[in-house]
Every structure is written in structure tokens, then in C-alpha cells.
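Inverse folding, one chain.
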């Protein structure tokens, strides 16, 4: 039996040494890091074509690795980083070879997706010693979504995944084998609902064209406005409208002078249909004639530059205004298609002038226009101020201003003076009534009788010029009748003659625009036309609150980093900004948690550190730092291999080796024995029968067994273990020899009825103290009884997960 025990022991030790450990080089995980900006922004590098490279981040601490991309492609450089190696590769790279000269090992890996420029990918590399026996990994493959347009929202099992635009044209996600539901939204509408199936080792590509186009025409001379599902396209017929979401769509045409028309079309992806729409007129035509083209025509209180124009059916108010005339009014009713010609003639407002000058037969000029010889009476003179000049040979010219008033008689009963050079020069200056004319008089007659009057007249002429410009500007302002025109008038003539009227009309327009904004939401018109309006702050606050609600609801419905960022930037002081920070923190936390679950602790830390550094004023920054400390603490709980001495009531010598892994299952295997097998003298059965031996009643047990199983962490630093074992258990009875010449007095005979191979289960716990000591306690079940097991040892070869 002695040789059998040693053979079994040798077999078990060889099995442990070959089955427990092996040197290997393999790639165990690949991931597209779609939010990593190192290749695009932080550390870009160009390939030979001038395009930005992709970065393959190989997760390993080894520095002896060599990289190649096949026979026809070369990488653009390798950089050794802390805990990883960066390999710069051109777009379209299909595979990578990784070799370790020290281990004399090489791993070839075909990428499961197309490598895109400016993107970052991660490879988890396993190099060196590793337990070969490990739990089977879950089977998975990639699904690759692409849409046109790329801004469509993709959901998988009602979870928002993102948009192709955010991920550089394709969404690449890893899913376990199985069937999943997905939907694609554009705007607020779901355009696609379907399922996809993930098969191991095969990527699933899903592409949807979500837009089409329609060419819209109508027989309208200046084109009709085109709306799609109520949204203004900014186009007029005839026009091609691209990028319309697929499905049944409502096309609406509107025009100021036609009844709106709607049509329903089925828009198909990548197809263009032609839609022809006839529109029914909704206007009448009016022509206004007058004895002359002077004056301003107002249609329904709005200035019209045309005398032939269109109006809506119904009551139309016409006004023709002319200076020094009574306005001509007319209200008419018109129907669709009707054409009317209307005569409007403002009535002149006149007064009477009566001239009786001594001597008679003097010539009278009104504003330098000959009116008649005195004496005479005119009753058709338009009201206003006139410059009157009366001349007769050998008499000094008389010049004066008169005012003609409606219905009144203005009498001029003057006596002409005999010729006086000073007076004549003065009358000439009065006749000219210009600054130069008065200055010429003062130059010619500096001591003249009318110098003081000349200086006063100069000031009056200047005032009249200002007044004329003021009145002309006001006429233009009234003709435009816009907020901008009134602001311009008040800016150029702050103390003008029409300041009160301008302020009053501006306030009236301000109130009209305010009511339109409140009623129909026309905020932009008010903001653009009344930057300092009476209601500007009120409407700005109301508009901001409405926009905040709209943008906030959109952010909540589609909580992407881009939407949260936009909300925070647009509304930094909003009451809902803290909620935007919370959504944003949750997005970063989800990405961090995903990396943490894959044991990529540094990625998890970098994600939260990025949040904390980018949003230092966020109310969740402290939460990010708290999570970072937790991850660092867990990261430092390195896994390790261990070796310990173990024993129990049946076996006083045992060695156990294995791994205690922080985040996944480990493995252990052990050998135990009872040292009695080396200290007893055994006697063969045939000798026992031929000699005289007597049993003493003493019994000794021996055994040699092997066990193996799995370890798994539940509460740090305690690991449970469960496994099973088998071995040979021998029972020996002590006997004494009756032969006085025997070479030994005491021998041990095997009790074969109670000896043999046995199988047993076992379970227990391992504990690690200060990363220096490993303790063991467990039980095994054998022969319908429990045996307590103990052990003490040490960890070695610590490694990070």
C-alpha cells in the first residue's frame, strides 16, 4: 500500500501544477468608448492621409508588448500610459496582433465593428498567470444603429440609447444574446417600432431612412407658403421640401389672398412625390381715382402706396388725405372676385384775401407767384402762411407774411413808400426771406434802419428750416407708421413739434404688439421692434419661463448629455437648473457604474472626475467626489492568489492554493493527508495468517485526499468557498507478534472493511487580514458526520481587476 499512496500523491501534485496555472496571452473584452474625446480633441494624431487616427487603448501594465495591424497597414505610433498602452490606428483597421516576447506568446484579434476615425476603443488584455478554470462568460455581440437623419432618437427596450449624430454616425452597443424591442423617434413622433435578435459572434446592423421629400406647386403668382404638419417650412410654391419624416403627412398651403388648402400625402423614405394644389381666391380689387395723384391713401387705417389694390371681402374703409384739404372718406362693402372703381377727392380748405393798396395797380406776388394787380379779392386761396410781395415802379417793394384762415377774410391795406435804397434793400431781403438775403442787407447797410429786424429774421428763418425738416420727417414717419420709424423720429427730434404725437402712437403700437404676444405668442416681433418697450421685461420673463418649461420637458424626455448641457448653458439661474445638473450627474454616474461593473475602475473614476471638473458649481459635485473615493477604496482591494497550511481532525498536513477575487469567482485546490501513513509498520495479510499475532486494540487512521472548488466574495474581506473532494481513507489495527525472533514487536494490519476511496462536499470561508494573512475555516461532510477544517497562510501575486 505504501507505493500506491506515493503514486496517488505524485499524480495529485502534478495535476495541481498543470491544471491550476498556465501562462497565456488573450483578449477578454472589447469596447467602443463613444464618449472618450482623446482621439478627437485631447490627444489627436493624423495618419498618412491627413485624417485623425482612432486610438486602441490596451488595458495592461506590461511594457514588452509589440503591436501590428497585418501586412498592408501600419499603426501611427504607440504610447505607454499608466495602466494602459495607446495604439494609434487609421480608419478601417480590421485586426490587431499583440505579442509578448518575454512570454513568447501572441494574440490575434479581429475587431467586431468598423474602426472609425477620431474614435476611441478599449481592449482588456490578459497576460501571464491566470486560473484557467473560470466561470463561463455571458455570450454577447454588437448591434449597430444608423439613421437618416442622424438626429433620430433610438430606444432599446424603452431605454434611451442615443442618436447616431452623437456617436459620429453609428450607435454601437454590446448586448447579450437574446431578442430586444427597439423604436426610433423623430421629433415627438415614433416612426419605427420593431425587434432585433442578438446572435453570438455576429454583429447586427440596423439602418432606417426616416425622411423623404415632396415637390409642391400651385398656380399662385407670388407663391403660397408651405407648411408640413402645421410647421412652416419657410418655402413658397413651387418648391421641393426635403427631410420630411416618413408616414402620412398633412401639407397645407396658405396665402394672404387665397383660402388655405390642405392635402394628405404618404411620404416614403428616399422618394419624392409631386403635389399640385389649386387655391380659391379670397379677395376683391379696388381702384381709387382722384382729380390729382396728390395726398395719402389709407385703406382700413393703413397707408397704401398703390391706387389699385386687393382687399379681403367685407367692409372696407377708404381715406384720401391731402395737406390743406379736408379728408375724403368712403366705406364700401366688397365680395370675393368683385372689382370696384371709387372716386375720392379731398375738399380744399380756403380763405379769402382782399388787397387794397395805395397807390393802386401794384403787382401782388404770393410765394413768388403772380396773383394779380391791386385792388382785387380772391376767395379760393388755400389756407396757410404766405410770403406776399407788392411791387410798383418808383416805390419801394413791400414784403410781408400773411396767414390765410379757413372761412376768413385777410385784408391787406398798406401804403407803398417812395423809393428808399435802404428800404428797398430791406424789402428785397424780405422778399427773398433767406439767411443769405438778410446777411447781404446787413453787409450793404450795417447802420441801416432794419439791421435789428434782419438779425431777428435770420433766427426765424433758421427756426423755419428746422420746423420744415421736422414736419417732413414727421410726414415720413406717419407714412411708415412702424415702431422703428417713431423711435428714429424721437431720437432725431427729441424736442420736435410732433414729440407728443410720436410718443402716443409708439405706445399705442407697443400695446398692440403686447396683446399680440400674449394672445398669439408673437414674442419675437415684440422683442425685435420694442427693445425698450413698456412690456419688454414682463414679456421677456414670460417667454423665458415658457421656453424653460419647453426645454426642460424636452430634456426630461430625452436626457442626453447634450440636452442637459444646453439647458444649463441657456438657463444658468433657472429654478430647474439643479434638476438639469441631477440628470447630467445621473448620466455620468450610469457610465461610471457601467465601467465599474466591467472592473474598469479608472474609467469609472475618470468619468466622475470629468463631471466634477467640468461642473464645479453643480450641487452634485460633492456626490461625484464621494463616489470617486468609494471607487478608489474598492479599486485598492486587489485580488490575489494565496497558499495556506490546512488541517482537520482527520488530516494533520495539508496545502491549499487558490485565488480570492474581488469581483468575480476564484478557484482553489488542495491536498491533505494524515502523517500516520509514514510512521506505521504495515503487515501483509498473508504474513498475518502465517505468523502468530495478537491484536492490541489500538487503531490508527491514514488518508490522502484532494479537493477543489470555487471562491466568491460577498462582504469584503470575506470570501465563501464551496467545493468537493475525494481520497483514500485507511483504517489500521495494531497487532503484536508472538515470535520472539520477529524484527519488530508491533505491526499494523489494514481493516479493509472500513478502508477505501471516499467522496465528500465541503464549504466555508476565507478571510484576508491586512493583505498579509489568509485564514480559513470550513466543514466537510463525510460518513454522515461533519469535520471542521482550519487553515492559515499568506497571499501572493496581488493583481487588479
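Residues assigned per position:
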Amino acid at each position: 500500500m505504501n507505493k500506491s499512496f506515493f503514486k496517488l500523491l505524485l499524480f495529485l501534485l502534478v495535476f495541481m501544477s498543470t491544471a491550476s496555472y498556465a501562462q497565456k496571452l488573450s483578449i477578454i473584452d472589447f469596447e467602443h468608448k463613444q464618449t472618450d474625446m482623446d482621439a478627437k480633441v485631447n490627444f489627436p494624431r493624423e495618419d498618412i492621409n491627413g485624417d485623425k487616427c482612432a486610438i486602441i487603448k490596451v488595458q495592461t501594465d506590461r511594457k514588452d508588448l509589440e503591436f501590428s495591424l497585418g501586412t498592408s497597414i501600419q499603426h501611427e505610433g504607440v504610447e505607454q500610459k499608466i495602466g494602459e498602452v495607446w495604439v494609434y490606428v487609421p480608419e478601417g483597421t480590421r485586426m490587431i496582433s499583440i505579442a509578448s516576447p518575454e512570454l513568447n506568446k501572441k494574440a490575434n484579434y479581429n475587431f467586431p465593428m468598423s474602426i472609425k476615425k477620431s474614435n476611441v476603443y478599449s481592449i482588456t488584455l490578459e497576460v501571464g498567470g491566470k486560473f484557467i478554470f473560470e466561470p463561463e462568460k455571458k455570450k454577447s455581440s454588437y448591434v449597430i444603429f444608423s439613421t437618416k437623419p442622424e438626429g433620430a432618437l433610438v430606444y432599446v427596450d424603452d431605454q434611451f440609447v442615443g442618436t447616431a449624430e452623437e456617436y459620429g454616425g453609428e450607435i454601437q452597443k454590446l448586448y447579450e444574446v437574446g431578442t430586444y424591442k427597439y423604436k426610433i423617434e423623430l421629433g415627438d413622433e415614433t416612426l419605427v417600432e420593431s425587434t432585433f435578435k442578438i446572435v453570438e459572434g455576429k454583429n447586427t446592423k440596423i439602418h432606417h431612412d426616416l425622411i423623404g421629400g415632396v415637390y409642391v406647386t400651385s398656380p399662385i403668382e407670388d407663391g403660397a407658403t408651405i407648411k408640413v404638419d402645421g410647421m412652416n417650412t419657410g418655402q413658397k410654391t413651387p418648391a421641393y421640401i426635403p427631410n420630411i419624416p416618413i408616414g402620412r403627412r398633412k401639407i397645407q398651403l396658405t396665402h394672404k389672398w387665397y383660402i388655405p388648402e390642405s392635402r394628405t400625402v404618404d411620404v416614403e423614405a428616399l422618394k419624392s412625390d409631386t403635389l399640385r394644389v389649386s387655391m380659391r381666391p379670397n379677395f376683391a380689387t379696388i381702384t381709387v381715382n382722384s382729380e390729382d395723384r396728390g395726398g395719402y391713401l389709407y385703406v382700413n387705417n393703413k397707408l397704401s402706396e398703390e391706387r389699385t389694390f386687393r382687399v379681403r371681402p367685407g367692409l372696407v374703409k377708404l381715406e384720401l388725405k391731402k395737406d390743406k384739404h379736408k379728408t375724403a372718406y368712403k366705406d364700401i362693402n366688397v365680395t370675393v372676385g368683385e372689382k370696384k372703381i371709387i372716386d375720392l377727392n379731398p375738399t380744399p380748405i380756403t380763405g379769402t384775401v382782399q388787397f387794397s393798396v395805395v397807390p393802386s395797380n401794384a403787382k401782388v406776388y404770393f410765394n413768388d407767384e403772380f396773383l394779380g394787380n391791386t385792388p382785387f379779392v380772391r376767395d379760393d386761396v388755400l389756407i396757410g402762411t404766405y410770403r406776399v410781395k407788392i411791387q410798383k415802379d418808383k416805390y419801394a417793394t413791400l414784403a410781408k407774411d400773411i396767414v390765410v384762415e379757413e372761412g376768413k377774410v385777410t385784408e391787406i391795406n398798406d401804403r407803398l413808400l417812395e423809393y428808399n435804397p435802404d428800404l428797398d434793400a430791406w424789402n428785397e431781403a424780405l422778399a427773398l426771406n433767406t439767411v443769405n438775403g438778410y446777411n447781404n442787407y446787413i453787409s450793404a447797410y450795417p447802420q441801416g434802419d432794419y439791421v435789428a429786424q434782419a438779425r431777428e429774421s435770420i433766427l426765424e428763418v433758421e427756426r423755419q428750416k428746422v420746423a420744415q425738416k421736422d414736419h417732413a420727417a414727421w410726414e415720413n414717419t406717419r407714412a411708415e407708421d412702424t415702431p422703428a420709424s417713431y423711435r428714429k423720429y424721437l431720437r432725431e427730434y427729441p424736442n420736435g413739434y410732433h414729440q407728443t404725437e410720436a410718443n402716443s402712437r409708439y405706445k399705442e403700437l407697443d400695446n398692440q404688439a403686447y396683446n399680440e404676444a400674449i394672445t398669439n405668442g408673437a414674442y419675437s416681433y415684440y422683442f425685435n421692434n420694442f427693445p425698450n418697450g413698456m412690456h419688454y421685461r414682463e414679456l421677456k420673463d414670460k417667454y423665458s419661463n415658457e421656453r424653460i418649461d419647453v426645454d426642460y420637458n424636452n430634456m426630461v424626455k430625452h436626457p442626453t448629455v447634450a440636452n442637459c448641457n444646453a439647458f444649463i448653458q441657456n438657463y444658468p439661474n433657472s429654478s430647474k437648473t439643479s434638476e438639469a445638473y441631477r440628470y447630467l450627474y445621473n448620466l455620468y454616474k450610469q457610465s461610471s457604474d457601467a465601467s465599474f461593473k466591467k472592473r474598469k475602475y479608472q474609467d469609472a473614476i475618470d468619468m466622475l472626475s470629468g463631471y466634477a471638473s467640468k461642473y464645479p458649481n453643480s450641487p452634485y459635485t460633492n456626490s461625484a467626489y464621494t463616489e470617486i473615493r468609494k471607487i478608489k477604496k474598492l479599486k485598492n482591494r486587489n485580488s490575489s492568489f494565496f497558499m495556506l497550511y490546512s488541517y482537520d481532525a482527520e488530516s494533520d498536513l495539508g496545502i491549499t492554493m487558490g485565488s480570492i477575487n474581488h469581483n468575480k469567482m476564484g478557484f482553489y485546490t488542495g491536498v491533505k493527508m494524515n502523517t500516520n501513513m509514514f510512521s506505521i509498520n504495515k503487515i501483509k495479510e498473508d504474513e498475518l495468517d502465517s505468523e502468530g499475532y495478537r491484536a492490541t486494540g489500538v487503531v490508527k487512521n491514514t488518508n490522502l485526499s484532494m479537493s477543489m472548488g470555487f471562491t466568491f466574495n460577498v462582504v469584503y474581506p470575506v470570501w465563501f468557498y464551496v467545493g468537493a473532494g475525494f481520497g483514500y481513507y485507511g483504517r489500521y489495527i495494531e497487532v503484536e507478534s508472538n515470535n520472539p525472533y520477529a524484527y519488530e514487536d508491533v505491526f499494523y494490519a489494514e481493516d479493509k472493511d472500513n478502508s477505501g476511496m471516499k467522496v465528500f462536499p465541503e464549504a466555508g470561508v476565507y478571510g484576508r487580514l491586512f493583505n498579509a494573512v489568509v485564514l480559513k475555516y470550513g466543514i466537510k461532510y463525510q460518513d454522515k458526520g461533519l469535520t471542521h477544517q482550519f487553515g492559515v497562510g499568506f497571499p501572493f501575486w496581488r493583481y487588479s481587476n
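The longest strand covers residues 693-715. Residues 451-480 form the longest helix (30 residues).
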